[in-house]
Amino acid sequence: MTPFPSEQIENFHRLAPEIILCAFGIVIMVADAFVQAAHKRALGWLAFIGALGGLLGVHFMAHDPGNAYSNLIRADSFSIFVHLVVMGAAALAILGSFNYLDEENIQRGEYYALVLFATAGMGILAGANELVTAFIGLEMSSISTYVLAGFRRKAIKSNEASLKYFVLGSFATAFFLYGIAMVYGATGTTRIDLIADALQKMMADQGQVASLAILGLALMFVGLGFKVVVAPFQVYAPDVYEGSPTPVTALLASGPKAATFAVMLRIFYVSFGTAGNFWFWAVWISAVLTMIVGNFAALVQTNVKRMLAYSSIAHAGYILVAFAAGTDIGIAAVLFYLAAYALMKIGAFLVIAHLGQPGEKRLEITDYAGLGGRQPVLAICFSLFLLSLLGLPATGGFLGKLFAFQAALDSKVVWLVVIAAINSVIGAYYYLRVIVAMYFWEPSKEYLPSKVAPTLAFALAIAAVGTLYLGIFPARVLELAKVAADSIYLR
Amino acid sequence: MSVVPVSYYLVLSAILFGLGVVAFVFKRNIITILMAIELMLNAVNLAFVAFARAWAQLDGLVFVFFVIVVAAAEAAVGLAIVIRIYQNRQTLNIERVNLLKF
Question: Could you give the angle at which helices A414-440 and A396-410 cross, rounded to 10 degrees?
Answer without folding.
Answer: 170
